[in-house]
Amino acid sequence: MIQELIIIIVQGKNRRDMTTPSGKVLQIHGKRYCKQCKEVADQTCFWTKCRQHPRNDDACEKEEKWFCERCETNTVVTKEIPIPTEKAMLVKLLMSLSERYELEGTTISVESREVRAVFCFPEHDLRKLRAIAENWADRGYITAKDLLKLERAGMRDVAKIPPKWAPSKRERREEAMRNIFS
User: Fold this and answer.
1) What is the pTM of this model?
2) What pLDDT score was predicted for residue 18?
3) What ranges do the domains of the chain cover?
4) Exposed, middle or buried by CB within 10 Å (0-12, 13-18, 19+), for 66?
């Protein structure tokens, strides 16, 4: 039961570290339920291992060691994770496209031998409309050409322009990595 999950890569070592082959230290910090404290507490995963499941060929066994910051106890969590099929990986990729691009809608249908995806794009380029609105806010006026673009889009009222989507988890993680190592 993980409510928050933050992956932090830091330089250096301490007693609770996973070290990647490149020498970086990896710790997973999250809020999890602790059976000892009987509360949701800050915990750190300092060791993880994946291996083939002994009885199921279509699954992996993942073992994690979590350390509770509050009561200072170690907990070993073992999970059975199914190995994703190519169809599942393709569907996951198609679903991630809506996070990367501004799409009006996405429909994905999965059948026994085929995967169909339909992506609907907005009628107007929202980036350009947002840029016009930002220029209007910065300058205090708008050109007639830009006003016509907004009217054609049915967004003469700047409040009707949808806000920029929040960055995806992958983009936030990449940005955090750039900030750490810059």
Assistant:
1) 0.41
2) 67
3) 4-82, 84-121, 126-160
4) buried
